[in-house]
Each structure stands twice: as structure tokens, then as C-alpha cells.
Design goal:
The chain is of the alpha/beta class and 82 residues long. 29% of the residues lie in helices and 28% in strands. It has helices at residues 27-37, 56-68, and strands spanning 7-12, 18-20, 23-25, 45-50, 72-76. The longest helix is centred in the last third of the chain and has 13 residues, at 56-68.
């Protein structure tokens, strides 16, 4: 994973709730939240930590929002018991 200054985390819970860099957010606000921390030409990687029970449509929407904010997507596995 890249240097922390070029890295953000999006957690998607099983109910579809989002947390961006540890703060609750909504899908409509996600793109603006990403753009607020992505100030220069350095690539920003948003690591998605999705619950295995999260709806794939929610994950796809998050990926589209990340790409629309000119950031890159990375996925992380979750090992949390649900």
C-alpha cells in the first residue's frame, strides 16, 4: 500500500453504511469527501474494506464515486466475524 499521505480508507458495513477515514459519511457525500483531501497530482488510493455481507451494488457505487473523484481504488479483505 502506498505512503499514508496518499492513502484513505472507506469502510462499508453490511447495512451499507460508509465510514471514510474513520468518519461516518453517506454515498452522496463521498465524492466531495475524497476531493477534500486530494489536493495535488499525487495519486490518492482509497482502500475499500467491505463487509462480506455488503450489497455489491453499494460497493460498485462506491468504486464509481472514488473514480469520479480522480482517486484510485484498492480492496482489503475483512476478517471480522459477523
Amino acid at each position: 500500500m502506498p505512503d499514508r499521505k496518499e492513502h484513505a480508507t472507506l469502510k462499508i458495513e453490511r447495512d451499507g453504511a460508509f465510514s471514510f477515514n474513520g468518519r461516518p459519511t453517506t454515498e452522496p457525500a463521498l465524492q466531495n469527501a475524497i476531493m477534500a483531501i486530494h489536493h495535488d497530482d499525487t495519486p490518492l488510493y482509497v482502500e475499500i474494506e467491505a463487509s462480506p455481507s455488503a450489497n455489491i451494488k453499494v460497493i460498485r457505487t462506491a468504486v464509481a464515486d472514488i473514480e469520479a473523484a480522480h482517486a484510485r481504488v484498492a480492496f482489503a479483505g475483512m476478517t471480522v466475524a459477523e
